[in-house]
Amino acid sequence: MKGFVPTPPATVELMVGKLFQEKGPAEKSRLLDPGCGKGAFIEGVIQWCVRQRIPLPRIIGIDSDPRHIADAREKFSKYSSIKLILGDFLTPDDLGPFDFIIGNPPYVPITDLSHGEKSRYRNIYQTAQGRFDLYLLFFEHALKHLGPDGRLVFITPEKYLYTDTAASLRRLLSHFVVQEIHLQREDTFRDLVTYPTITTVTHCVRGGETRAILRDGTIRSVNLPGHGTSWWPTIHQHGDGQGRFYEIRLGDICRRLSCGVATGADAVFVRKTVELPAAIRKYAYPTIAGRELVPDSVILPTNKYSMLVPYSRDGHLLKEHQLGALKQYLEQKAVRDRLLQRTCVSRKPWYAFHENPPLKELLRPKILCKDITPVVKFWADRTGLLVPRHSVYYIVPEDPAKIEGILAYLNSNTARAWLFANCQRAANGFLRLQSHVLKRLPVPPELAPPGTQLRGLAVEVA
């Protein structure tokens, strides 16, 4: 199966314990492992039943890899109550309801799926939205098989707790009881950094709070929102301590909020400033990449690198005859060969950027931040001449006079706490900033220019 990663024995034991924490299985109980692999969870269930001296429930394991099923059948051949099925769990079936479901569904991003698979899943599953991952679909399909008073324990990436893509799964889970969310160590799967979490769900009418266990050992009871919004702020209980609500978001007060310029060939267009020939300097703008934004520094390094830009200041691509000495540089064989390797040349002139730079909006006083960072920090480009590269986000205020106030707020503990609660996680505890998240950041009304039109409802400061 695509995305198969063996679950460590200690994690299997922990999850089986959660599965049977409130009620152990009876001999007639039905248990499902929807992506059983070689049978790690089935073996864990057997060991649990042996220790408790109770009969095994009726177990069904499903996997699409014939090698895994063959290994599992050999391992469990003496158990008549275990049935192993070679097949795709996501293919609609009539397996009936189960009393217990446990598993580690495959983590497969949409980029690893064929066009046919993506189309088929979008027609079947409500969680197959946006840039979905296969584990979301496994979660949805497993919930459909969870019988009355049934219990499900899954280990998945934590991203479903907060990403917009997983909003449909969070709405679906609001019809069940999420009893526990247990965040696991990021190295649970060794070199595979997924920030895993173990989720325990029951199918019953009684509600109640969710037990959240954080990675630092903190345990708290929370009431999860039921309308698909991020659970992360609730789980971490981030707030400004004053219960304030801001109706205005960062996107409401910005002329533009976007990631930086993607040339498709920075090795060609980005040069050390001191090495630029005088003849092409008029096409150059100071530029900066995310790696140059150092959290401990308050000064932007604006003189080290320059970007050669074959566009006019209003964002229109210059004609070849307007390029002058820049054309001579770009037409050098090694340089031109590199430009022709880019996918964008199939639809654009050979010297165009991968994405057209919105220079008319970009060349203004603005605020910058890294796209992936261990510490959220923002800097101001007060000159407006800096062209950020694609690893930098830039924020252009509608009112340039507000830039200092906006910068101070973005670097405040209040804004950082909200971003920590709402941003995706990258490897090693880094945060991944994205434009659609930044646009939702609540901001104080005094930062908005007069007559700002509000988008959306009141937003709690988190």
Protein described:
The chain is an alpha/beta fold and 462 residues long. The chain folds into two domains: 9-236, 3-Layer(aba) Sandwich (Rossmann fold), CATH 3.40.50; 248-460, Adenine-n6-DNA-methyltransferase Taqi, Chain A, domain 2 (Adenine-n6-DNA-methyltransferase TaqI, Chain A, domain 2, Alpha-Beta Complex). It contains 14 helices and 24 strands. It has helices at 9-19, 40-52, 66-75, 115-124, 134-144, 167-173, 232-236, 266-269, 325-330, 333-340, 359-362, 403-410, 413-422, 435-438; strands at residues 30-33, 58-63, 82-86, 98-103, 146-157, 177-183, 196-202, 210-213, 219-222, 245-246, 248-249, 254-259, 270-272, 284-288, 305-308, 366-370, 372-373, 379-381, 387-388, 392-397, 424-425, 431-432, 442-443, 459-460. The strands form six sheets. A nine-stranded mixed β-sheet has the order 3-2-1-4-5-7-6-8-9. Helix 3 (66-75) links the parallel strand 2 and strand 3 (82-86). Helix 1 packs across helix 2 (40-52). It starts with 8 loop residues before the first helix and ends with a strand. The model is unreliable at 239-245 and 455-462 (pLDDT under 50).
CATH architecture of the largest domain: 3-Layer(aba) Sandwich
Distance between the termini: 40 Å
> Do you know the CATH topology of the largest domain?
Rossmann fold
Tell me the number of structural domains: 2
Q: Please identify the top-level CATH class of the largest domain.
A: Alpha Beta
Strand percent estimate: 15-25%
Shape: elongated
DSSP helical segment count: 14
CATH superfamily of the largest domain: Vaccinia Virus protein VP39
The major sheet is characterized as:
9 strands, mixed
Mean pLDDT: 89
| Count of individual beta strands | 24
- Structural class call reads alpha/beta
- Rg, rounded, reads 27 Å
Helical amount: 10-25%
| Uncertain parts | 239-245, 455-462
Strand order of the largest sheet: 3-2-1-4-5-7-6-8-9
- Oligomer status: single chain
